[in-house]
Amino acid sequence: MLKLKDVSKFYYNKGIITAGFTKVSVDFKLGEFVVITGESGSGKSTLLNVLSGTDSYEEGEMYINGVETSHYTEAEFEDYRKKYIGNIFQNFNLVNSYSVYQNVELVLLINGYTKKDIKEKINNILKEVDLYRFRRTKVSKLSGGQKQRVAIARALAKETPIIIADEPTGNLDSRSAKSVLEILHKISKDKLVIIVTHNYDQVEEYATRKIKMHDGRIIEDKVLVKTKQDIVPEASKYANITFLSKLRIGLRNTFNIIPKFLLTFLVYFFMVAALLSEYSSFKKADYESGKMGYNGYFQNTDDRRIVLQKNDKSYFTDEDYEKIKSLSNIDYIVKDDLLLDNAISFVNEETNLYLYGTAKDINRFTGSVDVGRTPQNENEIIIAGFKEDYYISQMADQILESNLQLQNMMRGEYVGSYRIVGIKYEDINQYAFYCSDAVLQVVKDMADDYYSSIEFTLSGKKYKSEKWNTYMQIVANVNIPKGEAYVSADITYLCSNYSCRNKVISMTNSNIYYEQSNEVKITKSYNKNNFNSLTGLKKYDEHNGKIFVNPDDYEALFNKNYFQSSVFVKDVKEIYNTEKKLQDLNIKTLLIKDTLANWDEGVSQVLRIMQVVVTIVLIIVMFFISYFIIKIILKSRNIYFTTIRILGASKKVSKQLLDIELLTVSNLAYIIVIGFLLLVHYNIVNLSYIKDLMTYISIRDYILIYIILILMTELISSKFAKSIFKKSAMKTFNEEV
Q1: Cβ contact 699:705 at 8 Å
Q2: What is the per-residue pLDDT for 216?
Q3: Where are the alpha helices (H) located in 556-698, listed in sequence order?
Q4: Helix, strand or coil for residue 682?
Q5: Is the N or the C terminus of the chain less surrounded, counting Cβ atoms within 10 Å?
């Protein structure tokens, strides 16, 4: 059945060639109990390794059932071991953390059996070797003789025609040795049993054939008992290991040695924590860098802000606002967002007090004032700013006592009379004025005026009302009756017969959203003498040339609907999802955070690239540190993986079992870290630093970190597998034992 013809085995070490054995020719048949003996170094164990297919040979030919094996690839030798060879080792090569039953089960699962099909078979084999009552006992708690019987049971479970045993009684007492030999002798009736031993006297009564080796050669080959020649060799039937069996073995390996599991878990736990910490710090730095930008058109550069316009440029209706408000991530809506980007000034010329900032809705004010009180009247205002600001810190009393006017800088006018009654400390770049609806309306009118262009027709000719030129400038005045207009006597030359009385002025206001028209009739002209009595204004020279109309007529030129609004989101990480939902409502969007520019944009790009490089380097360093730590932790697993290869597992299957083990630990570590972060998020664990970093990581980022973790795990597994699978199974085993 098994035949060697002029087979030699050589070893190469640092340029030196040594012979394991040379020119060995021998033929083995089923039913034989072959004992190979000889002195240490005679080559008997090396011969056994070649016969079992766990080591290669360099010359000659080995035949199995007449088939040459010299051309066998590693995969074909794995197939050979599965079909023909059952191994029994001097050191047992059992998985000590497994039970007796699991050790026998392992070889069957590796060879394609399913769990449900093998229970009865395993129990019968354990009864045969008198270990049934120990089936649930950990192998580490057994005696030497019991362990060797487990090894025999494992070899029997494969149902291979050849059993190869290397010093099977070497570590046993005489009673245990006799028990083991009797079992081997019994199974040799229809199998080929080949054992190597130093103690021939111990096995003499069971041997049917004796082979003695010396200096790598067979010096004696003696048949002691003639055996049957009509036994037909039958290879073991096997299939590829099933996915469920791989999963079962992999999960068992993960948890069967608790110290190993805990150490590996800690490595992965810190790996996940380090990846998340580094990545969130990177995202935070990038976010903070983005916030430092500026925009020449938008004063309010809050990263939570989205500017809205309807696609058809029509105005927003109450129904539109309700739909927008219903979106889950919307915090609040600013219907007239011109207020957000138009700075206003409150001035007291007598005290040279000049305060510049943006207007905010008093209804958005939260908390309490730090100095003064809250407003009680429409013209009362709260100012917010840095606590260290000079005006707020040093001139608080003067600010709170002053009567202020709102400056229309475009027209060089002062509007209304207002009073700051409260001061709020806020970490903002410029002052914010919390105003009533009445004050906001004045500010809105000023903004509408700024962004609009008014043209008018008089006596068939078109003129433009320039904001920076008083001549022919249309302005509102409360002293003018509705529907009428007062013009300067200096422009009556524009009318026929130098008289503009009863002439109609047709006014049109236009901007990017709408055009609005109105008409008034000139009823009076003013000069230096009657200017004050007609308009109520002083300083004739500053106003001469203006066309005064009633405020209602002027306001009729402006559409009071909102054509552009802004929303502020609750969670800036979800801002792009919110933007998509707004676009689905036929709304054009602009994310302010994406419009910002930096004066040092080039430097920012270089720093961003450096951050990416540093992150990649840290990931690489983390990988190698983790690999070397895990390699040390898993070093004890080298014998395990070598053993399962000898038992019939391919390199691929062994690698997959390692993958399952490491992936289980890495996934568990990831889940535990995420669970801990959820406790922080919901304030069950109070760690403000971690909670702050979490705000910069999105679901997409968690997925990216998970992918990096899995890739690192796969790389660690591949590198470790390569280090233990690059040599033959027997060579790796010999190095580890």
Answers
A1: no
A2: 93
A3: 575-583, 601-633, 638-647, 651-681, 688-694
A4: coil
A5: C
pLDDT greater than 80 at residue 730 = no
Q: Which amino acid is present at 720?
A: F
CATH topology of domain 2-239: Rossmann fold (3.40.50)
More confident call, 411 vs 107: 107
Q: Tell me, what's the pLDDT at 122?
A: 94
CA 33, 38, 43, 45 dihedral sign is: positive
Write the Ramachandran bin of 467: left for phi over 0, alpha for psi from -120 to 50, otherwise beta: alpha
Matching CATH number, 305-335+562-596, of 3.40.1800, 1.25.40, 3.40.630, 3.30.70: 3.30.70
Query: Confidence band (pLDDT; 50, 70, 90) for 290?
Result: low
Measured CA to CA in angstroms, residue 540 lies from 403, 501, 530, 551, 722 at distances of 25, 21, 10, 20, 95
- Rounded CA separation 453/462 (Å): 13
pTM: 0.66
User: What does the pLDDT look like over 663-681, one tens digit per residue?
Assistant: 999 999 999 999 999 999 8
Where do the H-state alpha helices sit in 70-143?
Answer: 74-84, 100-110, 115-128
d(CA 365, CA 424): 10
Tens digits of residue pLDDT in 13-50: 878 888 999 999 999 999 999 999 999 889 999 999 99
Mean residue pLDDT across the chain: 88
Per domain, the residue ranges of the chain are 2-239, 249-287+602-736, 305-335+562-596, 338-434, 453-555
In this structure, the chain runs to a length of 737
Q: Evaluate the CA torsion angle 132, 81, 176, 194 in order and state its sign.
A: positive
Q: Which two tokens stand for residue 420?
A: 């700051």
Q: Cα–Cα distance between 470 and 575 in angstroms, integer? A: 46
Taking alpha carbons only, the member of 140, 215, 153 closest to residue 186 is 153
What is the C-alpha separation between 675 and 528, in angstroms, rounded? 81
Q: Are strands 16-28 and 67-68 parallel, antiparallel or unpaired?
A: unpaired
